C-alpha cells in the first residue's frame, strides 16, 4: 500500500503514470477533484497494462472525504452496458491500511471468458469481463458532487512469443541458445524475465545481443549424460508469460578405444584387433595409421560397437620405435585418439609371438 503522501495531489497539476487520466467537473461545481491511481494486486507498484485474471487495486482521494465507504464504477468504454460497482474503503478494513485518512481503497478483477466483452462480468465477485485490447475505465466521485476523475488502462492477454533455431537433440560441451522475443500485445517486454532453466534447476538469465534477441550458454559438462529438459521463459510488464521447452540428450563421453591381444599369423604378419565403444559412435570418422603414415578407414558400420583389425606386415617390422594410432569421434562431436607405441629390437622375428596392451606409452617387445 502506498503512503498517504503519494496521493496528496495538487489540483493544478494532476498526472497518473498508470494510464490515461481524464478529469471532468460539472460547470460551477466547487467540490474537489478525485485523485485515482491503479495498482497491482499487492499495491507494490502501479498497474501499467492489465493481463487476463489480474487483480487491480484502486486508491482514491479528493482531500475532503474521509471515513466509511464509497463507490467506484469500473467499465469497458467500448461497451456501455459492461460495468460493475466497486466498494472503496476508508475504515481500516478490506486492505485499507489507515481508517479515516481520506484514502479509499478497493480492488476488482479483470477476466476474459473468451466471449463478447461483458459476457462474463459478475458484480458479486467483482469481476469485469473485458475483451483483449479493450481498455478498462475507472470512474470515481467520492463526495458525489459531480466533480470526478476517470482513469483508463489497457489490457493485454498475450504472452511474448519466442523464435529460436534450436530444436533440441544430441549436445555436448557448451550449448549456445539464441532466442528472439516476439511482442504479441500492448505490454512491453520485461528484459529481466528472459531466463532459462534445465530440468527443475534455478532460473538463469539470458544476455541481450541485439534488440529483442537474447543468448545464453549452457555448460553441459555440468550435467549428467542423458536426457534433460531446457525451458526458456519471458514475460511482459502485464505479467503474461511465454515459454518454450526443448529436450536435449547430453553426451560428453569420448569413445573408448581398446587394443586387444595381438595375433601372429603363419607368415609372420601381426594382426592387432581393435574395439571402439560409444553410445553414439560415428563409424565414418574412425581412422587408423601406423608410424604416422596415411590414415586408413576400417569401414565399420555399427553405431555403438566397432571391431576391426590392424595388419602389420612382417616386412614392416623393422627394428626401432613404432606406433599405432586410432582416432574415433561420436555424433556429439566427442573425439578420442589413442596412440600405442612399441619397440622392436634387432633380431629374427620369424618365430616370435607377442602381445599388445592398452597403454599409450607401452613398449611392445616381441621376443622369446
Task: Provide a descriptive summary of the structure in words.
There is one protein chain. With 368 residues, the protein is an all-beta fold. The strands form six sheets. Strands 1, 3, 5, 6, 9 and 10 form a six-stranded mixed beta sheet that branches. A five-stranded mixed beta sheet has the order 12-19-18-14-15, with no helix packed on it. A four-stranded mixed beta sheet has the order 2-4-7-8, with no helix packed on it. A hairpin with a 5-residue loop joins strand 21 and strand 22.
Secondary-structure map:
Elements lengths: L19 E5 L10 E5 L9 E2 L4 E7 L7 E8 L2 E11 L14 E8 L15 E3 L6 E5 L7 E8 L5 E3 L5 E3 L2 E9 L6 E10 L5 E2 L1 E4 L2 E7 L6 E11 L4 E10 L5 E4 L3 E2 L5 E8 L9 E4 L14 E8 L7 E10 L5 E10 L24
Parallel strand pairs: 3-10, 7-8, 12-19
Antiparallel strand pairs: 1-10, 2-4, 4-7, 5-6, 5-9, 9-10, 11-13, 13-17, 14-15, 14-18, 16-17, 18-19, 20-22, 21-22, 22-24, 23-25, 25-26
Can you summarize this structure?
With about 375 residues, the protein is mainly β.
Unreliable segments of 5+ consecutive residues:
1-30, 354-368
Largest sheet geometry: 6 strands, mixed
Distance between the amino and carboxyl termini: 93 Å
By DSSP (H or I, 4+ residues per run), the number of helices equals 0
Features:
368 residues, 26 strands, disordered C terminus
